[in-house]
Amino acid sequence: MNYHWNWWIFFEPSLDGTNTYLTTLFWGLGWTAATAVVGFTIALVLGSVVGVARTAPIGWVQTSGMVFVEVFRNIPLLVQMFLWYFVLPEVLPRDAGMWLKQFPNAQFYTAAVCLGFYHAARMAEVVRAGLLSLSRGQKMAGQALGLTLPQTYRYVLLPVAYRIVVPAITSEFLSCTKNTSVGIAIGLVELTGTARAMQENTFQVFEAFAAATVLYLALNMVIVFAMRSVEKAAVIPGLGNRIAGRGR
Amino acid sequence: MLSGFDFQTIVHALPYLFLTGMSFTLTLTLCATIGGMIFGTLLAVMRLSDNRILSVIAGGYVNLLRSLPLVLVIFWFYFLVPFLAQWLTGSSSPVRIDPFWSSVITFTLFEACYFCEIVRSGIQSLPRGQTLAASALGMTDRQALFYVILPQALRNMLPLILTQTIILFQDTSLVYVLSITDFLGAAAKIAQRDGRLLEMYVFAAVVYFIISLIASQAVRRLQKRVAIIR
Amino acid sequence: MSMITLRDISKTYGDFQVLSHCSTWVSKGEVVVVCGPSGSGKSTLIKTINGLEPIDSGDIIVDGTTVSAPTTNLPLLRSRVGMVFQHFELFPHLNIRENLALAQVKVLKRSKDAAMEKGMALLDRVGLAAHAEKFPGQLSGGQQQRVAIARALAMDPIAMLFDEPTSALDPEMINEVLDVMVELARDGMTMMVVTHEMGFARKVANRVIFMDRGEIVEDADKDDFFGKPRSERAQQFLSKILVH
């Protein structure tokens, strides 16, 4: 292979004149993490609402939950990104569209909201599966004590459902983190984007992507460790599979 | 807004969008599914083999690629494959690879990791008695794998494999980052040329949505049938 | 005076008639045992009383409130009628004290301290004060069911409904639960109990209802029921479960 390795490239100043390439990579990592955290927070909240809606005993609520899931699951993430970034300002009333276009850090907010909705559809399925794995008696027991339906979800069903699906939430969070890289298409300078810029400016292709790879692996590890402690904290003493999968 | 929605742009673009764009997307999806299944099954068998070295190599490869964003992997292979080809063919400089084949190689190598996990769990979910029964009939490990284990595992896993193929179909849109003219790439090119972002992106979304929705409903129906057969 | 009145209750699941023209009542302080073969609709019947199972026709009146009326505040009504389930249905993520406190705080708006105090007193009454900090999964089935009874009592109910409270229990645990129920009956609690425990029925029931295929076949005073059941189906049923 006639490729000229140059690992010192990381310490050379980047095109912006002040930061080294290494620093720009860390900035990229920061934007990746920020986009992932904001996006996944939206996904958790919105996905819970939609997931609950899909198990609600009201026809039109269930249907709208299903439509939400199908729409955001069956359009490629990149296309959704374009819709949020290019199309939404066009279909909004003129003033609102202008306001959106001039929003500072628009790429960041767009990517976070887009990822939020995309992963909300998938989180909704996770939350729904968790809720369906609980026995029907749990819901009845909550209601028999006089809790309203929303209270039953809030205090009885969701706390247990969330605990059951922690592993699925972890893998969804990891997937959301990886998907921040799709933001590159609307100009978000996240980790893959900074590595790509470094490659274009220096032609040190493999150093740039190797660095990005290492940083992604590190980020993955941080998330896995963090979620493992969440999982440990969420363990219910004495609970095996007893509540899951019981009939009526 | 909707009153200004120019259907004419879409109608004029249809031949380009489908004959050039969608045919690229579908061919890529098909090739990468076949390639990914073959390589993925190989990886799964390696991961489950008693040979420590094989299983560590396969496991490391799968875990590494599953930890990385597809966009980064696309960039990796786009630059790496010419060097690999140079090394394989003994040529004097990196070999220029057609963007289509570069994409096929990338998606095959990437999606194989996801197919691998599906096949692996399919094999592991089979009762251990199946392997024992095959051995008791005098089959070698390889015969047991090909005639007893894999046929059952693949049939059980068919809905998951097809679902992964739908994901792959959506994922192929990411070749956009290499400026390749797949379906989305074709739509984006016309969008920018004619200044018709609204029409082209909404149309692209609708087409992807319809295809994915129909395909996933079909998989769901198949899933019910497979469940009954079992 | 009648605390619970059921008038001509019917209910179908698709083509299947679960309840067919059921009428009965429970007076204040009375203990009524409901028995019958499985699938006879007795569990469904008892769940209609606090509106957990909707009905197709008929009227249910609990302490003057019509359950199926659209204006009825079901959560309020349910908070006044205690229910104990076959599978206990304690909340697995809350410890025993919190299980007893949750509805007191959220539904009755009691202070947390008052709810905890009340819960502890009731745990003491069912003999489980020492387990207050444990989680449901760490208790035996019999203990869990006693906690479930305490949880219902913590709401100061005007009546208690029991849906096969001992049928999910190992035999050696049945009596600890029945003892609590007997004591409750002797304290004058209005109770409706779906159960096969005929010993319990003999000891404390005022009336026994026998159900089969969604109908109330026999509704008689305890002594009449055990002495000379009128219907053939009830006689057969009794001979089957009393022999074993």
Automatic annotation (TrEMBL), chain A:
Tagged with keyword NAD: no
Any one GO MF annotation of this record: transmembrane transporter activity
Cell compartment(s), UniProt: Cell inner membrane; Cell membrane
Keyword terms: Cell membrane, Membrane, Transmembrane, Transmembrane helix, Transport
Membrane topology: Multi-pass membrane protein
One GO cellular component term noted in the UniProt record for this chain: ATP-binding cassette (ABC) transporter complex
Membrane found in the keyword field: yes
GO biological process, any: amino acid transport
Domain ABC transmembrane type-1: from-to ranges: 29-227
TM stretches of this protein: 25-53, 65-88, 108-131, 205-227
Domain of life: Bacteria
PANTHER family, sorted: GLUTAMATE_ASPARTATE IMPORT PERMEASE PROTEIN GLTJ, MEMBRANE COMPONENT OF AMINO ACID ABC TRANSPORTER
Family membership noted in the UniProt record: Belongs to the binding-protein-dependent transport system permease family. HisMQ subfamily.
Protein name (record): Glutamate/aspartate transport system permease protein
TrEMBL record, chain C:
GO cellular component, one term: plasma membrane
Assigned EC number: 3.6.3.-
Broadest EC class assigned to this enzyme: hydrolase
A Gene Ontology molecular function term of the record: ABC-type amino acid transporter activity
Main location: membrane
Entry keyword annotation includes Membrane: yes
Residue ranges of domain ABC transporter in the record: 4-238
Record-linked InterPro entries: AAA+_ATPase (IPR003593), ABC_ATPase_HisP-typ (IPR030679), ABC_transporter-like_ATP-bd (IPR003439), ABC_transporter-like_CS (IPR017871), MetN_ABC_transporter-like (IPR050086), P-loop_NTPase (IPR027417)
Matches recorded under SMART domains: AAA
Keywords, ordered alphabetically: Amino-acid transport, ATP-binding, Cell membrane, Hydrolase, Membrane, Nucleotide-binding, Transport
Cell compartment(s), UniProt: Cell membrane
Source taxon at top rank: Bacteria
Membrane-protein topology: Peripheral membrane protein
Keyword Nucleotide-binding on entry: yes
UniProt family annotation: Belongs to the ABC transporter superfamily.
Protein name, UniProt field: Glutamate/aspartate transport system ATP-binding protein
Source species of the chain: Aliirhizobium cellulosilyticum
